[in-house]
Amino acid sequence: MLKLGKRLSLLLLLVVSSTAWSELVIRVTQGNDKPTIVAVSPIALNGIAVKQDIAAIVEADLERSGLFRATPRRDMLAFPSRSSEVYYRDWRMLGTEYLVVGSMRAIDGGRYELEFSLLNVTAQKREFKHSVRGRANEMRDLAHLVSDKVYQAITGIKGAFSTRIAYVTATRNNGKFTYRLNVADADGAREKLMLESPEPIMSPSWAPNGKDLAYVSFETGRPAVFRQNLVTGARQQLTNFKGLNGAPSWSPDGSKMALVLSKDGNPEIYQLDLRSNQFSRLTRHFAIDTEPTWMPDGKHILFTSDRGGTPQIYKLNVASKATERLTFRGNYNARASLAPDGHTLALVHRESGVFHIASFDLKTRRLIELTETKLDESPTVAPNGAMLMYATKQGDRGVLAAVSLDAGVRYVLPARVGDVREPAWSPFLR
User: Do 47 and 131 belong together in one domain?
Assistant: First the structure.
């Protein structure tokens, strides 16, 4: 067996990434072969000064899903704001299948109401009429809510445009790195700095309530797990043991956290009760056990272990401590991220020396490679299960990318400058 120092180095290779700072941008690289054509008419503002182009945000959201193609605004013959103003024949001539119209009005307390409708151009009928409310600085939020509603009405899948992503970046200046933990909208907009440090930051993990992040920071001179509130910025250090403190994962009810500690000499999976602050050991093996992730039932944890000779995914019964090996294809399967359906698993898969993101069905045990790049890592699944995000290389730069679970849709979120790593997709926030 490897000595502990070497094994810890190996373990860190599973979770450490070199990263660099800048706001993210989006570029769709592959969409559905037969996208649904949607037109989003400019929102009637009725004299209200709005800095955001709400219709453009909705268009971008829908196109980023890869399932839709927006009718260009320059081709529109009119800009209706209500269904009574729509001449369906004009929109059919453009090939439009669905049309979104809407208008804004001021209500009390400095708030605004956006009323919008989805019209089925082919059937010449209104699918729904809905309204959302917010303040002047929440126009992008309102736009994402429109996108969510439209997406769900057409696809039958809950939209995830109102969610957020966390990621780690690092800037190099005069040979020194500055690491930053950032949170942004799912489209990369409105980036917010949560933590800045000259020491590495890694493994961000969202609490089920969407209000807290857990992550690993080396600011104390060794890896330690921290918890941070996204609204207040308040931080709490959860671990301070010698050796490895890493890979935090929240339980589905938010009351516990699974993590990796080597305080007893070997990297093992532990459980932290966040109410009592008590730790309990869940694995006992001479191998490296790491990267825990809870299953939706709150009774099982998936984790990575090399107890079979190579890194593979195992399932742990929290109560009985019984383990079961799940993956066998390839000599490397790690960094599991579970889709909301509870049986589709995204993971890092290596075969023939190449790292890809793959999906693994826990029922059929079928593994499918989803990506074509060679250095893919850190998959995280959207809360609606439609897409997964991961870190990869584009030339010599690290970028975030996303792919649908059927590999039919792809987009890339490169930083304008530098690299970015360690994505974590939030739960639904509304």
Answer: yes
The C-alpha atoms of residue 306 and residue 279 are separated, in whole angstroms, by: 23
Greatest Cα pair distance in the chain? 74
> Do residue 82 and residue 175 come from a single domain?
no
Strands (E), 306-353: 312-317, 323-325, 332-338, 344-351
Predicted structure pTM score: 0.90
Tens digit of pLDDT for each residue in 225-284? 999 999 999 999 999 899 999 999 999 999 999 999 999 989 999 999 999 999 999 999
**Domain harbouring 170, CATH code:** 2.120.10.30
430 is a domain residue: no
Q: Report d(CA 356, CA 308) in Å as an integer.
A: 21
199 shares its domain with 64: no
- C-alpha 410/C-alpha 28 separation (Å) is 6
Which helix (H) or strand (E) segment holds residue 116: the answer is strand 111-120
Q: What is the rounded CA–CA span in Å between residue 24 and residue 187? A: 8
Tell me, yes or no, whether 11 and 39 share the same domain. Answer: no
Query: Tens digits of per-residue pLDDT, 135-187?
Result: 999 999 999 999 999 999 999 999 999 999 999 987 888 888 889 999 999 99
User: In DSSP terms, which residues pair with 68 in a beta bridge?
Assistant: 36
**Does 90 share its domain with 204?**
no
Rounded to whole angstroms, how far apart are CA atoms 230 and 165? 12
SS3 334: strand
